[in-house]
Amino acid sequence: MRLSAASRREQLLSVAIDEFGRRGFHLTQMEHVAAAAGVSKALLYQHFESKEELFAAVTGAIVEGLSAQLHAATNPGDPGLDRMRVLAKTLFDFATHQPSAWAVIIRHFDKPEVGDELRGLRDDLGAIIADLMLLNRRNNPTRLARAEPVVTLLAPMVTGGMMSLISWWLDHPEVSRERAESMAVEFIWLGLERIRAGEHLTSN
């Protein structure tokens, strides 16, 4: 059955996400994508003029989809801990249901030659996490002023740690998702010292 141009483009993007997630940008060639999609390379070039354009379309679709999920996931009126749990669940859901897209993010966000949009996604996630970490201080200007510079510096570390934990968990299915997800939330919400002292969050 002949696909419409829009449907064909969507199919090619889906296949390209798998190929870039599996091989990475530098090792993936246009012929890999064409072969996986079951089309000629000439047809692929009708939709995307270069590998760079194809990769930009792939990362653009990933960023748009995940960013929308992150911002829609939490209700600003909910308590901060509830919002943090929903945020973690959204990321774990994304990595679980879209592992190729997650692999594209992890493989490329720290590569300046190809990862600009993906770094923007990481920074956006970091800003959301920082905002939640500061939530219980916003009604006290003095506490907020003291905490904000520290949280600004810690947010990229916390964000990178959560992303690394999710990637590690995908490679270790013997660890339950519930355990990995709760540990991610506890690390952000309680901090390492309080966890080491034996403190844990109660389940909902």
Automatic annotation (TrEMBL):
Which residues form the DNA-binding region? 29-48
Instruction: Please list the GO biological process terms of this entry.
Output: negative regulation of DNA-templated transcription
Ranges of residues in domain HTH tetR-type: 6-66
**According to its UniProt record, what is one Pfam family this protein matches?**
TetR_N
Upper lineage ranks? Answer: Bacteria, Bacillati, Actinomycetota, Actinomycetes, Cryptosporangiales
Q: Which UniProt keywords apply?
A: DNA-binding, Transcription, Transcription regulation
Source organism per entry reads Cryptosporangium phraense
Q: What is this protein called?
A: TetR/AcrR family transcriptional regulator
Which residues are in coiled coils? none
Q: Name one GO molecular function term.
A: transcription cis-regulatory region binding
Q: Which domain of life is it from?
A: Bacteria
